[in-house]
Write a structure and sequence with these properties.
The protein is of the alpha/beta class and 298 residues long. The protein has a domain of 206 residues: Alpha-Beta Complex (Spore Coat Polysaccharide Biosynthesis Protein SpsA, Chain A), CATH 3.90.550.10. Helices cover 34% and strands 22% of the residues. It is built from eleven helices and 13 strands. It has a seven-stranded mixed β-sheet with strand order 5-4-1-6-11-8-12. A two-stranded antiparallel ribbon has the order 2-3. Strands 7-13 form a two-stranded antiparallel sheet. The two termini are 25 Å apart.
């Protein structure tokens, strides 16, 4: 399975913070924002990743992450000339996707799934092994203000029956989050999409296309999980505070890419040691030295 990380857009909701820097390079507590969605892809065992961003922001993201080899990843980059909707990422990445399954994640979405991540990974892997149905999978999260999002309606058996974009009267408190898993036919479906009234290729239209074919699975995130959209000043601050609370309480870092690469088996202990040696002195390096010494069990 391949991954696409959409780190485009103009970041207008965060202006003037984004006047000279990409939204995805802004700090969320102690790491750049893009570390968090990238870490989610890694936890789903995805190593072949396309990062899509703007012409002006791509060089800086590439400077930060390189080609990913130091993390056992293969990172490629593509340009989004103009932001024209989330589903546009699948059109830009069509050649990259080829005939593979693909996961699309938004660059300003932060997920904290705890130990539930392994259940979610199993669900996705089991789905991808099904050669008959080949469903798309999206995740839903319970919020207090669903009218701001794509609202997912379930029947009495917790089966999805509708997805409605930013309804005035939401049919549930569950909303679709920025994490989508698609089968190999997603490019063909995305190519059939028509721009909406606001001139965008809507991800909800794509998901509804799978729903109409009864090929859409919606997995509700669990209590204790967290989903944060860090695209506004308030949510950016909330995200930083959330990460700070977890890390200070547990003494374990979220979205530490080097640690995840090591524990996922993407890099060896010797390669982790080389990475640590290249870092400047500081708390981040100290933490990784403890990881290398085997002091971090989870």
């Amino acid at each position: 399975m391949k991954g696409i990380l959409l780190a485009g857009g103009k970041g207008t909701r965060l202006y003037p913070l984004t006047k000279t820097v990409s939204k995805q390079l802004l700090p969320v507590y102690d790491k750049p924002m893009i570390y968090y969605p990238l870490s989610t892809l890694m936890l789903f065992d995805i190593k072949d990743i396309l990062i899509i961003s703007t012409p002006q922001d791509t060089p800086n993201i590439q400077k930060l992450l390189g080609d990913g080899h130091q993390l056992g990843l293969s990172l490629q980059y593509a340009i989004q000339p103009q932001p024209e909707g989330i589903a546009q990422a699948l059109l830009i990445g069509a050649d990259f996707i080829g005939n593979d399954h693909v996961c699309l994640i938004l660059g300003d979405n932060i997920f904290y799934m705890g130990d539930h991540i392994w259940h979610f990974v199993h669900e996705v892997q089991h789905n991808n092994e099904d050669q008959v149905h080949r469903n798309a999978i999206i995740f839903a999260y319970h919020v207090s203000n669903p009218q701001r999002f794509g609202v997912v309606e379930f029947d009495a058996h917790k089966k999805v029956i509708s997805i409605e974009e930013k309804p005035k009267e939401p049919k549930s408190n569950y909303v679709s989050v920025g994490l989508y898993f698609y089968p190999p036919d997603v490019v063909a479906k995305a190519q059939k999409l028509k721009p909406s009234a606001r001139g965008e290729y809507e991800i909800t239209d794509l998901n509804n296309a799978y729903l109409q074919e009864e090929r859409l699975t919606v997995i509700p995130m669990q209590r204790g999980n967290a989903w944060l959209d860090a695209g506004t000043p308030d949510s950016l601050m909330d995200s930083s505070i959330f990460v700070q609370l977890i890390e200070k309480r547990q003494g374990l870092k979220l979205a530490c890419l080097e640690e995840i690469a090591y524990k996922q088996g993407f890099i060896t202990k010797e390669e982790l040691a080389e990475l640590i040696a290249s870092l400047n002195a500081g708390a981040y390096k100290d933490y990784l030295q403890n990881v290398l010494a085997g002091e971090m069990f989870p």
